[in-house]
Amino acid sequence: MKQIEGGILAAKGYTASGICCGIKKNRTKNDLTLIYSEKPASAAALYTQNLVKGAPLLVTKKHISDGIARAIIVNSGNANTCNADGIEVAERTCEILAHELSVAPEDVVVASTGVIGQPLDVTPIQSGMGSLVAKLSREGLDDAIEGIMTTDTVKKQAAVELEIAGSTVRIGGIAKGSGMIHPDMATMLVFITTDCNITPEMLSFALTEDVQRTFNMVSVDGDTSTNDMVVTLANGLAGNRLINSKGEDFELFAKALNSVTVSLCRQIASDGEGATKLLECVVTGGKTLAAAKTAAKSVICSSLFKAAMFGADANWGRVLCAIGYSGADVDVGRIDVSFRSAAGSVSVCRDGAGVDFSEELAKKVLSEKEIYVLVDLNDGPFGATAWGCDLTYDYVKINGDYRT
Q1: Less Cβ around it within 10 Å: N or C end of the chain?
Q2: Is 187 known to be catalytic?
Q3: Is 179's pLDDT higher than 80?
Q4: What is the pLDDT of residues 316-354, one digit of tens each?
Q5: Is 238's pLDDT higher than 70?
Q6: Measured between alpha carbons, how far is 98 from 103 in angstroms, rounded to an integer?
């Protein structure tokens, strides 16, 4: 397996485009994105567990209930959530695109991101659809990524290539996500394409298993969005023998999928609203997998710890504090903690108690852009990783006037 360029266009048989159709107030940025497979593809998706769900999620879930999709259309600038006509607008968007592409509306996945509770006018979408379809190309990656961004400051994409039973298979993805990120059985907005020949059932199984240890382990601010969605299409054009059950081929595919999703997790966390640092909490020695995951996620979610990382303050007590209230089954008297970055490593806690360390070295370690928080529970064989970012003044500035 190797990392390659191309994102969602790395795999065979996909084109993409992005345009500015006038949904956003900023008329210089793309706000409408299209991803298209030249043949019907196996489809799988996971959605936010927030009880308040955007209309596009409900429509998409219905459309891919047969495990097949052909196109994904996404708008930014308006979430189409908590609107009386939300379902109608989402369905109409699919119908307009389906007409332009000569496909069935039920083969269209629809997604939206942006402000909640403001009606989404379908007029600019309808007006721009012809141009959006006409611009579909193998070079449309950058335009497509821009079209799904809101407060994101960088474009997020990843892709890998691997051999499965003698066939070259590619998997790639793009993502948007910077704030309102604390997913549960889903993620921000993530779209993954592959030319792997795999059934909808096994694609769904792979995605569901993967999300538990990737996107569900990311948190920027503790808020679970109403529009979180991860969608995967697999059009089979790689020509590998069909993956319809567990086995070596499936394991290879799942490993490659994980490589793409971990990369996207790191990119999303690193680009958290106002963030200056990527935090990766690696927990080992858990009595159970649940204990390891709960401990890692609690550390990443701690506002006090996140603020300490912004100030490059080795306040390791906040790590233990977060684990202590997490509900994880741990023995706090066994916990070891250290911090590591490109500037070095410093041990700050052993057996649940502080140890002497150089504050000067700790400051250097914590002043880097990527910081690893290493926690050993010393209580078993299980481990987990969670991703987050520091908490800065700019987070409040960004969200203080997000709507207006």
Answers
A1: C
A2: yes
A3: no
A4: 999 999 999 999 999 999 999 999 999 999 999 999 999
A5: yes
A6: 5
pLDDT at position 48 over 90:
no
Domains in the chain, CATH or no CATH each: 2-270 (3.60.70.12), 278-400 (3.10.20.340)
Over the chain, what HEC string results?
Answer: CEECCCHHHCCCCEEEEEECCCCCCCCCCCCEEEEEEEEEEEEEEEECCCCCCCHHHHHHHHHHHHCEEEEEEEEEEECCCCCCCHHHHHHHHHHHHHHHHCCCHHHEEEEEEEECCCCCCCHHHHHHHHHHHHCCECCCHHHHHHCCCCCCCCCEEEEEEEEECCEEEEEEEEEECCCCCCCCCCCCEEEEEECCCECHHHHHHHHHHHHHHCHHHECCCCCCCCCCEEEEEECCCCCCCCECCCCHHHHHHHHHHHHHHHHHHHHHHHCCCCCCCEEEEEEEEECCHHHHHHHHHHHHHCHHHHHHHHCCCCCCHHHHHHHHCCCCCCCHHHCEEEEEECCEEEEEEECCEECCCCHHHHHHHCCCCEEEEEEECCCCCEEEEEEEECCCHHHHHHHHCCCC
Backbone angles phi, psi at 159, to 5 degrees: -160, 150
Pairwise pLDDT comparison (397 vs 317), residue with the higher score:
317
Residue with tokens 């996620």: 297
pLDDT of residue 142: 98
Residue 306 main-chain phi, psi, to 5 deg: -60, -40
Q: 55 is written with which tokens?
A: 């209309």
Average pLDDT over residues 207-235: 88
pLDDT band with cut points at 50, 70 and 90 for residue 26: confident
* Maximum CA extent, the chain: 69
Per-residue pLDDT, averaged over 229-234, amounts to 96
Question: Is 301:388 a contact under the CB 8 Å cutoff?
Answer: yes
Catalytic residue among 48, 81, 187, 294, which?
A: 187
One-letter identity of residue 349: C
